[in-house]
Amino acid sequence: MKLDSRQLRYLTAEDWRVLTAVEMGSKNHELVPTVLIAQIAGLRGGSGVHKSIATLAKSGLVAKIKNAKYDGYRLTYGGLDYLSLNTLRKQDTVFSLGNQIGVGKESDIYVVADPTGKQLVLKLHRLGRISFRTVKANRDYLRNRTTGSWMYLSRLAAMKEYAFMQVLKREGFPVPEPIAQTRHTLVMELIDSFPLRSIDNVSNPLKLYGELMDLIVRLAKVGLIHGDFNEFNLLIKEDPVTKKSTPILIDFPQMLSTTHENAKWYFDRDVNCIKRFFSRQFKFTSDEPGPFFEDAIKDTDKNKRLDIEVEATGFSRKMAKDLDRFVEAVGFQNEADEDTAEVQDDPDSHEVDQDYSEDEEEDDDEEEEETNSQTAHEDQTEEELAEQ
Ligand code: ADP
Ligand code: MG
C-alpha cells in the first residue's frame, strides 16, 4: 500500500491509542485479540474501541486474518508507516510528506520536510516485498515468516542502516547525515544529486574511478565492506559554485565486517561492480589492477574498527544475527543484478506479505492467506520491540 498521510489528520486521539495498542499486542500475537486491544488501549468494553478499529481497518492500518479462530486484528505495514510518521511528527523531525522519489525492491523513499521547510529523505524498509520465486532463496525460511517477523526484519534493517550512517558520518565518510530512526524507517539528509547510473558522461573518469576505489579501501581500513557498492547506491553531488562533483554513498543495511567469512568475496564484488560499470558506461578501464582485499585490510586501524563499534550500539549481536540469517537466505538484492528479483505486484502471488497488494483494504478477511497464530514471533524479544 502506498503511504498517504492525509488520513493522519482524521485519526482521533482514541484511534491512535487503539493503533498503538495493536502494535503493542503484536509483540506476542500475530493476530491481536480484540479484547486485548481494548485492554491495552485502556478503553475497556465500550463502543469506542470498535469504532476506532472500524476506522483503522477501513484505512488499511489494521486487518483481519482469514479463518481466524478468534476475533482480532493484526497491524499492517500501512499501520506501521502511520505509527512511524506520527512518532517523527511528534518529535518535530518531519512536518510534511512529499513525493516518493524511489521505489527500491526492499524500500520506499520519500521526500519529507521538517518544521522549518527543509527537505529531508524518509526511507521505509520493506523486507519481504520482493518475489523470491526467481531467487535462489531458502524457501523454508521465507515460507515460515509471518507479517510480524517481516516487520521485525525491516526494523532491524533500518536500525542497522542508521547505526552505520552515524559512525560513517562521524568519521568523515561521504554519506548523508542521519537524522532520526524509528521502527522500520529512517530520516536522513536529502542529497541534491544524480545517481551515478544516470550519468552518461564524466569529464574525468579516471579521477572518479580513483575516488570510488579509495572509498572502498577506506571502508575496509575501518573494518567495513559496503556489500552493494554500485551505480545505484552512489549519488553524484555537484557543488553549485565550484562545480566539483563528489560521490556520496548510500544504502547500508547489507554492510558487513572485513572479518566476515566471505569478506574477500564481497570486497571483490564491490570492486568489480564499479569496474564493470565504468567499462560499460564510460568505456573506461583502469591500467592498475586491484584494489585487493589483502592489501586493503593490511593496515586496518585497530583503534578504529567501525564494525566492532556498531556491534556495541543498540544494534545488538542478536539483531545482527537475525538480519544475517535473512541476508543468507535471500541475499539483499544486488541492484546491479536487475533480473534476479521482481517487486511483488502480482495480487495473485501470496508468497510473501500481503500488505503490498494494493487491493488489500477492500479484501479484508476474504483474501488474507495467513494462518492464525497465537504464539510469539520466534525472534521478537521484549527489549527489541520496546518503543524507541
Ligand atoms: P534501496 O534499498 O531501495 O536500494 P536506497 O537507499 O538505495 O534504497 O535508495 C533508493 C534510491 O532513492 C536511490 O537510488 C536514490 O536515487 C534515492 N535516494 C535514497 N536516499 C537518498 C538521499 N539521501 N538523497 C537523495 N536521494 C536518495
Ligand atoms: Mg539502493
Automatic annotation (TrEMBL):
It comes from the Eukaryota. One of its GO terms (molecular function) is metal ion binding. It catalyses: L-seryl-[protein] + ATP = O-phospho-L-seryl-[protein] + ADP + H(+); L-threonyl-[protein] + ATP = O-phospho-L-threonyl-[protein] + ADP + H(+). GO terms for biological process: maturation of SSU-rRNA. Coiled coil: none annotated. Its cofactor is Mg(2+). Residues 66-299 form the RIO kinase domain. Its EC number is 2.7.11.1. Residues 335-346, 354-371 have a biased composition (Acidic residues). Keywords: ATP-binding, Kinase, Magnesium, Metal-binding, Nucleotide-binding, Serine/threonine-protein kinase, Transferase. GO terms for cellular component: cytosol; nucleus; preribosome, small subunit precursor. Residues 332-388 are annotated as: Disordered. Belongs to the protein kinase superfamily. RIO-type Ser/Thr kinase family. This is Serine/threonine-protein kinase RIO2. The chain holds residues 1 to 388 of 459 of the full protein.
